[in-house]
Amino acid sequence: MTPSDFFSALWNSYTQITPQAQRIQQLFESHGETVLNDHVAFRTFNNSPISLEKLEPQLEAIGYKAYGAFIFESKHLKARCYKHKTDADSPKIFLSELLVEELPQHCQEIIGKFIAQIPADAVQSPAVFWAGKLWQTPTEADYLALAEHSEYAAWLSTIGLQANHFTVSINHLKKYPTIKAVNQMLIDEGYALNQVGGLVKGTPQSFLEQSSTMADKVDYTFSDGKQRTIPSCFYEFARRHFMADGNLFDSFIEGNADKIFDSTNTK
Ligand code: OOG
Ligand code: NI
Prior knowledge:
The protein is α+β, with helices and mostly antiparallel strands. The chain is built from 8 helices and 9 strands. It is globular.
């Protein structure tokens, strides 16, 4: 599978439940822009057949290699980032996993029921990255119990493996050169942005500025028949800056990422 096939399959499954991303991309295009992606991100459960460690070889299979590692203590996550070995324009990939054993016992038990349903050989090809949830639909009570302690766990229990965001590269836009201009356009168009820690995460001095929409909401029926609208996926905007050595910063920043995760919060 080529990276281009990989990202177009991902975009298809992502926009099915994130119609705002398609609309915002079209908005940029209607203003004469060509939208390039800075990165996409995935979430998963550790100690499972779809752990970060088990998924990583499928990224290597499409020509990617890991170049950074991150820890999010209060969210009980760890993550790695990946870039293509030869094509610098191919989107970067951010893959995180939930450290399930750090959650309260009752959450571990709920997640344990999902993990027990994942086939041991679930990871066979890069297509696993849009496999969705590999377990039965949770009950509303289990979903709410997870959300209480880990919004990430609640989100993952309903959505599963799939790109949780694509990211517009502001560096490649012509008419919206700053993150402020992008945010203002989105606000004028009525989109709800993630305000955790302010609209803009990061500064030019830290070489990476990011903002994101709040996730789209989709109608969801839990296994017990209860219905509610739940967050699906969101769209991100990133502007990278040059470092003193003349290279564009190409990694991620824990302090920014910590807030971007909140784009799928239920509250
Ligand atoms: C990933 C959040 C981190 C970034 O650009 O820092 C991130 C997620 O929400 O799964 O995407
Ligand atoms: Ni991101």
